[in-house]
Amino acid sequence: MRRECRRIGIRLLTAAALLAFGLSTQGALAQDHGGATEASKTLFGSRCAMCHGADGHGSEMGKSLKVKDLTSKEVQSQSDAELEHVIAEGKNNMPPFKDSLKKEEISGVVQYLRTLK
Asked: Which pLDDT belongs to residue 18?
């Protein structure tokens, strides 16, 4: 009986340790882009990468539309507010996203853009 209790105790401790480790790495994964969340990275991939490229340098289609290189000093030197405005309102060939993205999502995309430099 005592041996069985010890085994159960060890199993419970192991499960608790694994759960704690899983929760701590989940938080790390959610914020592994310099403050930008995985959701922001995914949003960039689904909404922006078609023109701006996954790396921010511009896709072939984006280059033909003369999109800005998001890693450039010109873009990176803009304030968060300026970049949020461009995403929300659009500019040149870029459509506005204010009706399809929440303000928090736009802010998250900007934070992700900062990691591309």
From this structure: 45
Residues 72 and 108 in one domain: yes
The CA distance from 107 to 97, in Å, is 12
Does residue 76 share a domain with residue 92? Answer: yes
Chain centroid to CA 97? 17
- Residue 52, domain extent: 35-114
* The predicted structure's pLDDT at residue 44: 97
H or E element at residue 32? none
Q: Which residue has the tokens 């009986």?
A: 1
Distances (CA, A) of 1 to 7, 8, 14, 116: 10, 11, 20, 59
